[in-house]
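Heme exporter protein B
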Amino acid sequence: MTALFLRDLKLSVRAGGGALIGILFFLTVVTVIPFGVGPDLKLLSRIGPAIVWIGALLASLLGLDRLFQAERDDGSLDLLVTQETPLVLTVFIKCTAHWVATGLPLVIASPLLGLFMNMNETAIGATALTLLVGSPAITFIGAVGAAVAVALPRGGLLVSILVLPLTIPVLIFGVSATYAAVEGPQPFLPPFLILIALTLFFAVLGPAAAALALRNTTD
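Tokens:
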């Protein structure tokens, strides 16, 4: 499992630029917003957490179609399905490696982009914390779409279409927890705990559903 994690981590970084492409796309999405809404610093500060979350969500979708593509291309996908190690555990490890390579850099970059949106220290910290907790759920959800589309030509767009509606609850509670921490008097803890629960839920459901889809694909 450690070897699989390190292998997938290297592949995620190398394929298509990996974390660098995600950060550049994240940076592009967030920095073009001020040009659209104008130089109103108060407005930018108010909508900043939502914009950062939306940018991170869209950037997280970029590499999901490649989650199982390397194994499909070299024929090792059949070996993953038939090996003694449970396929669910294998998918979980691959999702974790993918998040470390592509999702964690977005969390690290979010404070800098928060400054671009004129967000204060509390908003920046709350946004980074909610992204750290909630962004893994996007990867686990995306694993299902990647497994469904792995056998299809040009399945990248299909993965985004399948995954994006399922990530809306994560986006809602991530932004809600951030605004609760900044504005009050709404408590921060309830939406934050729901966000954690969503991540844990999809950490179980996502790999199981992806493993089932991969078995059906190789049959």
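The chain is about 80% helix and 0% strand.
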